[in-house]
Amino acid sequence: MAPTRAGPSVIVYSGVDRILLDPRKPPFTTAAAALKEIPLDDTALVLCSGKTRAELELVQQTLGINHPFICENGGAVLIPDGYFRFDVANARSLPGYHAVEFGRAYADVVEILHRTADGLRTPVVGFSDMSIEEVARECRLPMLQARLAKLREYDEPFRLLDPSSGAWSRLSKALQGANLRCTRGQSFDRVGAPVDPGVGVNLLNGLYRRVGGAVTTVGVMGSTHEDSLRPLVDYSITVENSDTSAGAAGGPDAVAWASAIVGTLQKLRRKGKQGWFEEPSPGRP
User: Fold this and answer.
1) What is the pTM of this model?
2) I need a surface site. Which of 45, 75, 119, 191 has the fewest CB within 10 A?
3) DSSP string spanning 20-89?
4) Could you tell me the mean pLDDT of each successive run of 10 residues in the chain, 285 residues long?
């Protein structure tokens, strides 16, 4: 479909880590069908995730979307080839993409993590040390997703073999001295470059404005966890859990997520860009 303007006027940024859990399950098919109602000539859906590029490629393929995405907690913005009609500054060419990288090379992150942990006599085990089978078992992932989760480029999930708060504090402080940042997780902690989560969002906003002028930005998040997108967008919407059993998985399912996005965009088309959102983001008009 030919675009009606130079570029999209609405950019939807969505955290997906606790929403889009298993692309092989039936809810993804239903979600993909729902997303076909989005006016693709005027809307961009940008996935923001701690998942790897390979994992997000599978999600995008399953959902039938082909927009830029932000992987590994802001480590890089991946822009499909030919998506913008101009060269993107500081982008590295990858097969099918131009990548603007903010993270540190994965090999460097892994090497510094182990060197620092060894020096502190605080042993750790990370994804780089684990087999696909071990990642699948420890993270409760299907084998395919475990394989894709190991294809890391910017940050390392890891676990301290001594999980005491003192060991964590010493390691975190030492890694900070090496210009890396640790974040706590449920099953695995993460270490990578101290990337500001807003950098990738701001980059894409600038690129979209360069194409088509003013844009309205919307953040989508699950109600079960705090999402760093909220202060970065004009408006935010919360996806309620449509299945009480999904709480064990961490958040709403793909169908509820897609329905919330489609409903939001339908309201936007009917009522215009101002005054219809129930949840203006803090500090936004």
Assistant:
1) 0.86
2) 119
3) ---TTSHHHHHHHHHHTTS-TTTEEEEEE-SS-HHHHHHHHHHHT----EEEGGGTEEEEETTSSSSPPT
4) 61 81 71 80 89 93 91 96 94 95 97 97 96 95 93 97 88 96 91 93 94 87 62 82 45 77 81 49 50
Q: Which structural domain, as residue segments, surrounds residue 265?
A: 10-103+196-271
Question: Which of 164, 192, 220 lies at the terminal end of a domain, its last residue?
Answer: 192
| Tokens, residue 254 | 């793909």
Q: What are phi and psi of 83, to 5 degrees?
A: -65, -45
**Do residues 84 and 181 lie in contact, with contact meaning Cβ atoms separated by under 8 Å?**
no
Q: Return phi, psi of residue 205, to 5°.
A: -55, -45
Q: Is 197 helix (H, G, I), strand (E, B) or coil?
A: coil
| Sequence-ordered strand ranges (E) for the chain | 10-15, 43-48, 69-71, 76-80, 92-94, 97-101, 124-126, 156-160, 181-183, 189-192, 216-222, 235-239
Yes or no: say if 215 and 205 are a contact pair by the CB < 8 Å rule: yes
Helix axes 165-177, 106-119, angle to 10 degrees: 130
- Rounded CA separation 180/58 (Å): 28
Helix 26-35 and helix 254-271, axial crossing angle in degrees, nearest 10: 10
Q: Does any domain span residue 4?
A: no
Pair (180, 42) in one structural domain: no
CA distance 163 to 142: 26
Residue with tokens 């959102």: 277
pLDDT tens string 226-255? 467 778 888 888 876 555 443 334 445 788
